[in-house]
Amino acid sequence: MPEQITWKSWEHVSGREIKYKWRHAWKEKPGDDYVAFDGDTQIGRIFRSQAGEGIDNRWFWIVATDGNPRLDWPSAGYEESAYVASRRLEMIYESIKGGKPRTAHR
Q: Measured in Å, how far apart are the chain's first and last C-alpha atoms?
């Protein structure tokens, strides 16, 4: 289970526009489970947690890094809403793809 992450001031994602294509993870079972794509490449997934006490109804996100170095970015975590989880996933994906390490603000 991912630990709670403390985000730095320049890592806030509110106000970010959706940049990538999102769709339900399971066509035959739509619900609170989505995957994101950069063209034909799946970049991650968000879904509503039903895991248990303390994290119910939070949104779990996981970034697909495809073997790229994570550069100190977390690859998974929880957010309070689908909006923030989707923006967080996109921000981290772009940072990893662009080679931007988390350890320094650029």
A: 30
Does residue 71 lie in a domain region? yes
> What pLDDT does 106 receive?
47
Domains held by the chain: number: 1
Range of the structural domain that residue 38 is part of: 18-79
Structure tokens of 85? 């989880």
pTM greater than 0.90: no
Amino acid at 37: F
On whether the CB atoms of residues 48 and 57 are closer than 8 A, the answer is yes
Domain assignment present for 67: yes
pLDDT range class, residue 86, cuts 50, 70, 90 = very high
